[in-house]
Amino acid sequence: MTISTRGAGKAPAVLVLEDGRSFRGRAYGAVGETFGEAVFSTGMTGYQETLTDPSYHRQVVVMTAPHVGNTGVNDEDPESKRIWVSGYVVRDPARVPSNWRSRRTLDEELASQGVVGISGIDTRALTRHLRERGAMRVGIFSGNAIQDEGILLAKVRQAPEMSGADLAAEVATKEAYVVPAVGTRKFTVAAIDLGIKGMTPHRMAERGIEVHVLPATATLDDVYAVRPDGVFFSNGPGDPSTADHPVSVMRGVLERKTPLFGICFGNQILGRSLGFGTYKLKYGHRGINQPVQDRTTGKVEVTAHNHGFAVDAPLDKVSDTEFGRAEVSHVCLNDQVVEGLQLLDQPAFSVQYHPEAAAGPHDAAYLFDRFVTLMEGQRA
Predict the structure, then answer these.
(1) Of 202, 201, 214, 206, nearest to 185 (Cα)?
(2) Angle between helices 265-273 and 244-256 (to 10 degrees)
């Protein structure tokens, strides 16, 4: 990636997909070139949380909402210490942000962090193209980075694919840290950081949980050194088929029958630990308006998603696994993709979406209470 923060918003820019389709617009954020997997997010709010979600590492995010940047950028809402998207695509960027918490414009924030973006293109047409053809590699080029489109297309096709990418360790913390419980400490949880969002340990801390956030490389001995009442596996980027180490650690947790909760990447890790396969979705689920049914209650929730891979588990039966009986607990009502798993003979469950949902919706916040209930049951 080559970047410059000068001239953003004025320089011409072009977006080139690996199948040869291109879109021309204006630079947004930093000027230069960048590459990643083109994906689209259907959320109308929460762009700051999206940008700072480590699960978007090496992805170029296309916003389907036409107006982006209206509330500027503040210092309270980031989910991590930096922007993780490799590129950003919007139709109509806000000219003047309006929010009492705003400290700077989104354009300024993208430029200061070296994130190359493009504005002024037909994001509806681009989204329809990705829905029909599937997520694919893409490049954004602006200013002096623009060359003959044949040369740019060749660069895009040389970029690494998301399938087979092992990325969790690239975004996870390098050193363990503790998020203290709010009020009286009731439980201790070891949280494996595979790309954790800041709101996740906060949601647990609100419930009296002291959270020890551990690197993705943490061993089973590291997990049990904190004497956990429960173990959590976070969201994260990349292909779950490469996550052999987290699977090994999770299998050790399951063998000890410690209460376990996983979200997003953690759901895929549980699927693999139980012997199920994973596969890449055509274009994934991303946004804060995805309908999911909790099959244990029949309730339909509006949920926040960010995943391009899914677990291949049977929807119509209980499966026998090495760790007891397992079933699909949640399913996406748009396409019947597995959105949750639970074990019936020991305290372990996971969901494919984001119950912490800092930008909303909050329909799934009860899942943290369900985790607490498992730990209470184990202690009793």
Answers:
(1) 206
(2) 70
Residues 105-127: tens digit of each pLDDT? 999 999 999 999 999 999 999 99
Quote the CA–CA distance of 180 and 251 in Å, as a whole number.
27
Q: Token pair for residue 180? A: 């203290």
Cα 234 from Cα 199, distance rounded (Å): 11
Q: Which residues are catalytic?
A: 264, 354, 356
The DSSP annotation for 146-212 comes to ---HHHHHHHHHHSPPSTT---HHHHS-SS-EEEPPSSS--EEEEEE-SS--THHHHHHHTTTEEEE
Q: Exposed/middle/buried for 20, CB within 10 Å: 0-12, 13-18, 19+?
A: exposed
List pLDDT tens digits, range 336-369: 999 999 999 999 999 999 998 777 778 888 999 9
Distance CA(79)–CA(310), nearest Å, equals 23
Cα Rg of the chain (Å, integer): 21
Mean pLDDT of all residues belonging to the chain: 95
